[in-house]
Specification:
Strand order of the largest sheet: 2-1-3-4
Structural class: alpha/beta
Helix content: 40-55%
Number of strands: 4
Distance between the termini: 80 Å
Strand content: 5-15%
Shape: elongated
Number of helices: 6
Order of helices and strands: EHHEHEHHEH
Length: about 180
């Protein structure tokens, strides 16, 4: 009689939040961790590790997301079968970056899943839906960036403070440096 080996799907739990998003939308690191952990228990998944990028934008350079890069190395080392995150905008806000990483995942037979949204990469309509959602997320991030740049330029023109961080010896008086 031969023994049948049963192996669990190895899941990486990716958690990301920028400071502004956490404050505005309640995507706290702990809330994401709890939701993803609960999902793994409900679906009999083995947690490989938690990969947590705190205060990191999904629009910046991927290399700045240290935990994302560490997770990608684990993908390349074939330690992961599935990557979980709560929403697509936790993963990417750039269509171009998404496809770069998707190629790597496919080469290593790694799937991904959002726990609070439904995506299907196996159909034409499913892929179109992902492209549309990523484009919307990218546009939202671009518009927010444009608004922030406008506000900062206006403050600079009025010689107002735009940050709370100053070199030693400098201080703010009447909102002017």
């Amino acid at each position: 009689m031969s023994e049948k080996k049963i192996s669990m799907t190895r899941a990486a739990l990716y958690i990301r939040v920028s400071t502004e998003e956490q404050a505005m939308h309640g995507y706290s690191l702990e809330a994401q961790r709890e939701a993803l952990t609960r999902y793994t228990k409900e679906h009999d998944l083995l947690i490989v590790d938690y990969y947590v990028d705190e205060g990191k934008s999904a629009r910046g350079k991927m290399q700045n997301r240290k935990e994302f890069m560490r997770m990608l190395e684990d993908v390349k080392a074939d330690k992961i079968d599935l990557i979980l995150f709560i929403k697509l905008d936790r993963w990417f806000r750039s269509v171009k970056d998404y496809y770069k990483i998707q190629e790597i995942l496919e080469a290593h037979h790694v799937n991904w899943c959002t726990t609070e949204e439904h995506y299907d990469t196996t159909t034409t309509n499913g892929r179109l839906h992902i492209n549309i959602r990523l484009s919307i997320a990218q546009d939202e991030a671009d518009r927010t960036s444009d608004r922030i740049k406008f506000v900062f330029a206006s403050k600079l023109a009025r010689k107002e403070v735009i940050t709370g961080m100053f070199p030693p010896g400098f201080k703010v008086e009447n909102d002017v440096v």
